[in-house]
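Can't paste images in this forum, so I'm doing it all in text. The chain is below; anyone willing to post the predicted structure tokens underneath?
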Amino acid sequence: MRSYCQRVATEKKAAHRTETYWGRPVPGFGDPQARVLVIGLAPAAHGANRTGRVFTGDGPLGSGDFLMRAMHAHGFASIPTSQRPDDGLVLSDAFITAAVRCAPPDNKPTPTEITACHAHLVEEAAALQRVRVLVGLGRIAFDAAWRLLADRGVVIRPRPPFGHNAVYEVAGYTVIASYHPSRQNTNTGKLTPAMMDEVFAGARDALRQ
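Text version of the structure:
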């Protein structure tokens, strides 16, 4: 996976051939006082692997813009797009990260790679002392949210099933599942703007409780 994201950063995409790619593990970003932790899958090869910021730069109406529109609508983001690291995007009461830190081939990390990256998620989340809501974008991120809670002593057996906008309350935390805002999902209508909107409406409601 590391060699793949480095190779992509060297070969580049024609549309970005003059740019310097990040080409390294991508950290999360957002409000250090966040109560909402949004977990994605992994950096996009020519998105976050290029820009160095998760859910950033994967094109107009890409996953970053799709996600940010919903977050902006509910007061978690200052603007409804995520195009460049210097675009002025500021998150409020939210922090975005990913289960996997490097761009994987075909956007499909292996179980070993997911496990290897989990320690980074744990360390990042440990610095977010106020988190009450975890939003898992896709099944891998949803599973990562439960592993993160298990590391904190919150273990649910059997693990709750994944389903879009499934909401679980446990030990003072709210876990919300969502389909991932990939083009595969958004272009086919599996995930619509209204469906993404309801996830962050739910996150906002959970904070009011």
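The first strand starts at residue 29 and ends at 30. The chain has one domain: 2-208.
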